[in-house]
Amino acid sequence: MDCKEFERMIPDYIAGRMDHQSLKKFSEHMENCRDCQEELTIQFLVTEGVSRLEDGSVFDLQGELDERLKAGKKKIRRYDRFLKAGLALEAAAAGCLAAAILWFLI
Ligand SMILES: [Zn+2]
């Protein structure tokens, strides 16, 4: 994927509408690409800034974006661990089943 595609994903990221795979790719790219980081910052400030102006609460948006990127990374790590645990469980279950079938046949 190139930067153009990631730029198109930014509004979904800001709105929190992104599946795990896209979020993972997106976060990884954001860590390594200055241009996209800048684009994300600008779009985040504009999108959130406007809605904050409306309800009159403009906070430390740059700080919030940093927090959000960090939280996203944590979520991805947790999800990956969860997937791995799931695979291990599945393998264990398959192993048990095979053992049960063997036991039944013998
Ligand atoms: Zn980029």
Instruction: Tell me the radius of gyration.
Output: 21 Å
String of helices and strands: HHHH
Q: Which whole number gives the mean pLDDT? A: 87
Q: Provide the low-confidence segments as ranges.
A: none
Strand content range: under 5%
What characteristic shape results from the CA principal axes?
elongated
- Helix share of residues? over 70%
Describe this structure in words.
This protein has 106 residues and is an all-alpha fold. The chain has one domain. 88% of the residues lie in helices and 0% in strands. The protein is built from 4 helices and no strands. The longest helix is centred in the C-terminal third of the chain and has 45 residues. The radius of gyration is 21 Å and the shape is elongated. It starts with a helix and ends with a helix. Zinc ion binds next to helix 1 and helix 3.
